[in-house]
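Newbie here. two chains, one complex. Structure please?
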Amino acid sequence: MSLLVTGSIGIDSVQTPYGQASDVLGGSAVYFSFAATYYTPVRLVGAVGGDFPEEFRKVLGEREIDLAGLETRAASKSFRWSGSYAGDMNEAETLETKLNVLAEEAPKLPEAFRDSAFVFLANTHPALQRDLVSQLTSPKLIVCDTMNLWIETTREELLRTLRVIDGLVLNYGEARMLTGEQNLLTAGRGILKLGPRVVVIKKGEHGAMMVTPKGVLVLPAFPSEKVRDPTGAGDSFAGGMMGYLAHADRTDEAAWREALVRGTITASINIEDFSLNALRRTKRADAEKRVEQYLAMMPGG
Amino acid sequence: MSLLVTGSIGIDSVQTPYGQASDVLGGSAVYFSFAATYYTPVRLVGAVGGDFPEEFRKVLGEREIDLAGLETRAASKSFRWSGSYAGDMNEAETLETKLNVLAEEAPKLPEAFRDSAFVFLANTHPALQRDLVSQLTSPKLIVCDTMNLWIETTREELLRTLRVIDGLVLNYGEARMLTGEQNLLTAGRGILKLGPRVVVIKKGEHGAMMVTPKGVLVLPAFPSEKVRDPTGAGDSFAGGMMGYLAHADRTDEAAWREALVRGTITASINIEDFSLNALRRTKRADAEKRVEQYLAMMPGG
């Protein structure tokens, strides 16, 4: 089934203990799309400025990504982010964020995308997320991401958004902030009461947890010795997850469990190199092979 | 098969966001023994002072713990520890440690315990650990714990100990400190080169990882909403793990995997209440029921 993503398309500069990359392709919707297209084509909605390199457009063209919703605003500048990671690389230190085109009007949802069945709203202002939801004609599954900024500054807007979506993906610090609960399972169950029927809490190198009214899924991260750049880990996690669900055209509990395994694996591939490099060179067959390796590393495997 | 543990037997005072307990039974060998006796009897070696309450001795008598190696030194005082936990409770803040009897001569290994097959050396000076190893007549599996203090101050002694044991259990901060590697898998593999053929890295609320020459096992923690006091989590983890191995009388990879699941579960029970309270009231059948619940919470389950 069709999968829509809307989020940032950016130009990143990143430094980690393993190297650095300057002015490389990044952004939540981009990481999401590269991970999701292991499983299904993606419709991308986002905006870039006149400075967006032709070369990056070619990279986006490598995958089955429908760019009809990619707006280029010649007079604007693209979103830029620079950050660095140290130590266990669990958290980025943001050095600079230039919202640029992201601070302007939201990109339009093309008429042809309104019938999208599976929808992922990457982290942005919750009112904009709700605005996009209102334009959908026949959604089967709407999942969104959020961040500490919106939890702190636009809490009421966020709570309204949580009432119109199906799933929320957020990291553990955000889950604690949103609910005021230290215990992650209590936090997850608290979020279920706010509207979503699926809550996915990301824990970086420690894996993820899914909480639904039916139960709990706990997933360790795929242990890798080749972690070079965690940028986009959460977005590539969401991409693998949503790509699998859209491909399977299912939203039941069992499908979600399979989907979270895929998200874990696409994230693990992504962080092995800077920018989109690892996702670009890794084939779906290799990702599925890693799924098998991963399952074998767990007690039931 | 016989299971021997040597470690501390203490009197603890603990404060957490969920309450507090003063002058309660604690110590690494005690938590270990209560968890291990879900699966097999335990031989305990340790020393206490004349101040050790008769009531605590009765508690130890509730389980199949052979106390022939429990030395009571009337003129000495028992080991005391007090600490507090805040926030996510992943780390204790030690308020006071009184080594007392632990700073004296090591307790003697009774002649009848020398033939122990499965042996766990809880955290203590690595030279004392080695001394105990040298007294064993027919060990099948020797596993030890350690801590940052020995890694920093007696590194050479610790490295010598690592060459005469089979397995090392340590937390992730210690694994990083011992190897200088941030990546946990790299750290685990680095420790294998130092002697042990099994390395178990504990990650608190994030679970555990086992690294052997054959492969890797990753385990999330059992998600619980009832975490009240994490004291003894690592020791009850080791107890469930070693208790299962001794009970099965196996040291192969498959048995270790099963054993780590048991360790995860006994630790999850322990942290649901202060001191030994939760382990004391929970039956083996309930622990095994929780094993099933846990496996069902993972992708293969």
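Moderator note: The mean pLDDT of chain B is 96. The domain at 3-296 of chain B is CATH 3.40.1190.20 (UDP-N-acetylmuramoyl-L-alanine:D-glutamate ligase). Thread marked as resolved.
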